[in-house]
């Protein structure tokens, strides 16, 4: 059975109350529950991790080697400046999809650039919960294609 890891970065634990005009009213738990249902229907194992700390996210990425077939990562603000997370992604060589709830390209200028984009298989942003669901759909499809 295939294993997928979803990593939620800084401040995503505050979803539902954090800037609802940008991030909506869904909570991180809502996202996890929806993804859990989607994974179960596809007969895929899915685990979730959230941290506000860069080093913990890096440790989790390192620990993912040999355990996970795909990663879905919302690195939050680390997307825009964490060379350390970028390097960890490159080192572990696990296909990773970068997700964002909001469209980072329609927001403040500093959010337009992702330092992790060059080392992930793709980026999905701007669709709220559906950004995560689309990423999971793609990961499942790719794993099925690989057989």
Automatic annotation (TrEMBL):
The active site is at 23 (proton acceptor), 100 (proton donor). Homododecamer. This is 3-dehydroquinate dehydratase. InterPro entries: DHquinase_II, DHquinase_II_CS, DHquinase_II_sf. Substrate binds at residues 74, 80, 87, 101-102, 111. HAMAP family: AroQ. Keywords: Amino-acid biosynthesis, Aromatic amino acid biosynthesis, Lyase. The lineage of its organism: Bacteria, Bacillati, Bacillota, Negativicutes, Selenomonadales. It catalyses: 3-dehydroquinate = 3-dehydroshikimate + H2O. The keyword Amino-acid biosynthesis applies. Belongs to the type-II 3-dehydroquinase family. It comes from Megamonas hypermegale. It comes from the Bacteria. It is an enzyme of class 4 (lyase). The record marks 18 as: Transition state stabilizer.
């Amino acid at each position: 059975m295939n294993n997928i890891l979803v990593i939620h970065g800084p401040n995503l634990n505050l979803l539902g109350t954090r800037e609802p005009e940008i991030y909506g009213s869904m909570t991180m738990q809502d996202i996890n529950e929806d993804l859990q249902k989607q994974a179960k229907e596809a007969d895929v194992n899915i685990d979730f991790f959230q941290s506000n700390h860069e080093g913990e996210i890096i440790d989790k990425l390192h620990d993912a080697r040999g355990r996970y077939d795909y990663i879905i990562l919302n690195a939050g603000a680390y997307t825009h400046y964490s060379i350390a997370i970028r390097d960890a992604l490159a080192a572990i060589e696990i296909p990773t999809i970068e997700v964002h709830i909001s469209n980072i390209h329609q927001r403040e200028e500093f959010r337009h650039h992702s330092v992790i984009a060059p080392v992930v298989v793709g980026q999905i942003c701007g669709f709220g919960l559906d950004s995560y669901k689309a990423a999971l759909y793609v990961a499942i499809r790719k794993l099925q294609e690989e057989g």
